[in-house]
Amino acid sequence: MTYASNNANCTISGTTLTAAAVGTCTVTATKAADTNYAAATSAGITVTVSQATQATLVAVSTPSTVAFGGTTTLSTTGGSGTGAVTYASTNANCTISGTTLTAAAVGTCTVTATKAADTNYAAATSAGITVTVSQATQATLVAVSTPSTVAFGGTTTLSTTGGSGTGAVTYASTNANCTISGTTLTAAAVGTCTVTATKAADSNYAVATATVNISVAATVPGAPTIGTAIAGDTQASVAFTAPANIGGSPITSYIVTVIPPDVAPVTGASSPIVVTGLTNGQAYAFRVTAENVAGVGPASAASNSITPKAIQTITFAEPGRPELRHHAHSCGNSRLRPDSGLHVLHTGCVHHQLGWRPYVCGGGRLHHQC
């Protein structure tokens, strides 16, 4: 017995028919003649070849976790036939163009692959695969201080460049040399500080930080507060108080300048400072400045005016012997002889230390005798 197909949709080997193409074929069977019988052929039977089910189709994402804004490549394994493969996402977290998936929002999406039918195979759709969209790393954040060196007590404006997303930016200092309010940094102490700028995370971007170093420089001290100048013999003592603002650095010295500048400025460590070399009889005033590592600050107001004068020596002539009459002191006039040549009349009192001894007189009463 032999079998035959009327077309290529079916191929026959022995008693096995293979569906070679979708469609139909007519199969006939022929029994060969023998000694007693002639050959015989059956009526044709129709065999229908339908589309086959494809081999299992598997969708693949490489990688399967993608940062926001990033991409991954989609592919498949398995399937059958020549049908084209397309991909689809279950939500807007992922967008797909051809075999490229773009992470459009943080979260997850389910991707399926579909291999189209061809002449011989029915369409096939893969099981869904999960693609995770994670927060992305922000673009490089750069912290900026304008300027980056600030005078003690001064301010600078902080800002950033770069970064990504809508997160707010905040600033913090590593120490008390700098204080920060919003984007304004105030130089609180001489030295350095490191400022960290932080751009907060949002739905799609992780937090980002950057640092910038700030130098706080000393400034000259403020003006001392002038006190009272006191005249002496060719000299003066000038008092003052330290300035409230020392410029962020200890005061190393105070300088007294003379008005008029008959003598060179005089330096001292604290108040009062004595200025020597003045001319007696000449009126003077004084100003005081403070100095630190940054230099000399502004001068104080002028002091009161003083006039140095020589010190007179006055010689007292011995006064006459006083007469004591029931008193412990007596007064008299004496001539004074100043070295200045001026006439001085001095009326003074001479005081005596008196001693007493008791004795007994008549009548038994106690009397004292000088």
What does this entry look like structurally?
This protein is mainly beta. The chain is 0% helix and 52% strand. It has no helices and 35 strands. The chain has strands at 2-5, 10-13, 16-19, 23-31, 40-41, 45-49, 57-62, 65-67, 71-78, 85-89, 94-97, 100-103, 107-115, 124-125, 129-134, 141-146, 149-151, 155-162, 169-173, 178-181, 184-187, 191-199, 208-217, 225-231, 235-241, 253-259, 266-268, 273-276, 285-292, 295-296, 314-316, 329-338, 344-351, 357-360, 366-369. The strands form 10 sheets. Strands 8, 10, 13, 14 and 15 form a 5-stranded mixed beta sheet that branches. Strands 1, 4, 5 and 6 form a 4-stranded antiparallel beta sheet that branches. Strand 13 (107-115) and strand 14 form a beta hairpin. The protein is rod-shaped, with a radius of gyration of 58 Å. The chain starts with a strand and ends with a strand.
- Overall shape: it is rod-shaped
Q: Separation of termini?
A: 184 Å
Could you name the ranges where pLDDT drops below 50 across 5 or more consecutive residues? 324-330, 350-357, 365-370
Rounded Rg: 58 Å
Count of DSSP H/I helices = 0
Strand content: over 45%
Helix/strand class: mainly beta
For the biggest sheet, the summary is: 5 strands, mixed
Helix residue percentage = under 10%
The residue-averaged pLDDT reads: 89
Number of extended strands: 35
